[in-house]
Request: fold
Amino acid sequence: MASYDISMALLGSIYVMLRLEEERMHILLAGVKFMRKGHLLAAILLVLLVVPFPTYAGERNTIQISVPVSPKAARVITVKVVDNPKFVKRLLRAPILKATQTPEFPRATIQLRKRTFLYDSMDRLFEPAKKQQLLLSTDLRETLDFYISQAEKQYYGQLLAWEAVRKHFSRMSYADVVDLETGQRFRVQRRAGSRHADVQPLTRKDTEIMKRIYQGKWSWRRRAILVLVDDKAYAASMHGMPHGAGAIANNGFHGHFCIHFAGSTTHTRNEPDPSHSLMIMKASGKLPTQLMEAEPHQLIEWFLTAVHEHDESIWRQMTTSAMPLPFPPDQLEALRYDNPEIPVGDQSLLTAFIPVRVRYYAKGQKEQAQTWCFYLNRSSLVERWKIADIFITD
Reply:
């Protein structure tokens, strides 16, 4: 990797290396802090071509930022930032409080001088090993947010409506599908579909990769994915069940499967499928914001949808840490529910009590119907709602 002598007078800090682990790519970026939007790319090229790199830049001033979609995700993007010593010193000497709260929807793990921090969706920096929170000044927070945002742009997909995506991902064209959690990647061709994309794996190897994503068993479960077309990544959702017609010979896939984008619908309903919509939000990186702003009834709908899709990384984020499910989640086959309605007088500013009629199948059992009563609370008007408990009334 080439090195440059960058003038400190021109740059306050910035040497950014993006590493996509699943693709083993190394991308070098440089930029000027607080640069006007729209001129970032030109500034990057200018810096790389003509501006020298600081001689002091080294391991002690390297900030390593890792962005996964969930704690268990195999797919991780790592950003290494070599910043000036003054910024690093100010960051490490930021005022400290004993952490009385846990990080809300962590965006990134930050490693600096053998210390590990978590940066959450409320722009707070925690050091879990020492159970403390660092109080960041505005400029420190904005700088960290800038670095993390650059990594997130590489990690997540663009949230674009199906009517716009279909112009780029036209019939008979090709795309790469990347599973957001595992990073596994395979190639597909769009053969049909007007309400969504009907696609097929291109080769037998692509089919094998897709089946590995579903642990070797075809399934209707939705998964958050990126669809790569012409070097652009779109947030999408797929299921893993071959069905209907398929026209690609010798690919080992009998039929086609469906990929949904924002606003697309199934063949049988005019409204977007809730499960696909949830996974599309996850693939775009915008799900934490939606959950933090959700009202109780909306939170319950997303919770039940995530449970139905066996996505614990989502439904756990909507509950208090000790909140158990009414049954072991690994025993669930499928779950359906009636739209939650808030009874008059059962919601206050800080608590809500909402009954929901659910129907579900447990492994080896017939369908069961129950009323689940959700108790939600929040500690103040500026905090988000969480599901604290579920009671079964019949």
